[in-house]
Design goal:
Layout lengths: L12 E5 L14 E4 L5 E6 L12 E6 L2 E13 L10 E7 L12 E5 L9 E3 L8 E2 L8 E8 L3 E8 L8
Antiparallel strand pairs: 1-2, 3-6, 4-5, 4-7, 5-6, 8-11, 9-10, 10-11
Length: 170
């Protein structure tokens, strides 16, 4: 008889055990979670204001909370169309381009999806931008005003330097 037989349909590594030796197990009970190290995915929560910009195949830069010094590359492989009420977001799945160093499952992460790219942009650190888009230049007493493009939490794109002109009429 096969009453005590455990069947695992895929190969992998046990990452979480729900039952131990001596526990009562009924047919259909989940006794462990098994992960395949070659098919690890990142699951991202994307807010509803940003989901329209996410497309299949886009490049994703991922930092795991367990190793914030390493950036992994991945690609968006699935966008679930149903809105998740619990997280107040849409769910996207990302496949990593290369194998991860070590077996880490379930860790939180930071992911940035590349939605557009701009070559040869002039960037300044975000903390250098003052109120009214003013920037202090070395050797100048007065701040200059700039026209900004893309503004992130770390950098500001400078599109144009607005020159203050003083006219004298005689």
């Amino acid at each position: 008889m096969n009453y005590n037989k455990i069947v695992v349909t895929e190969g992998g590594t046990i990452i979480k055990k729900f039952k131990t030796t001596g526990d009562y197990v009924r047919k259909g009970d989940v006794i462990a979670t098994i992960a395949n190290e070659k098919e690890i995915q990142a699951v991202l929560n994307v807010d509803e204001n940003s989901i329209a910009q996410v497309k299949l195949g886009q490049t994703v830069f991922i930092k795991l909370n367990t190793n914030k010094n390493t950036v992994y590359n991945g690609k968006v492989t699935e966008i679930l169309s149903a809105y998740d009420q619990q997280t107040q977001s849409f769910i996207c799945k990302v496949d990593f381009d290369q194998a991860l160093n070590g077996s880490l499952y379930g860790t939180q992460l930071e992911a940035n999806i590349l939605i557009n790219e701009k070559k040869n942009a002039l960037l300044i650190p975000r903390q250098y931008l003052g109120f009214g888009n003013k920037v202090n230049l070395k050797g100048k007493d007065e701040a200059i005003i700039i026209k900004t493009g893309i503004i992130s939490t770390e950098y500001v794109e400078v599109l144009k330097v607005l020159i203050k002109m003083i006219f004298y009429f005689h």
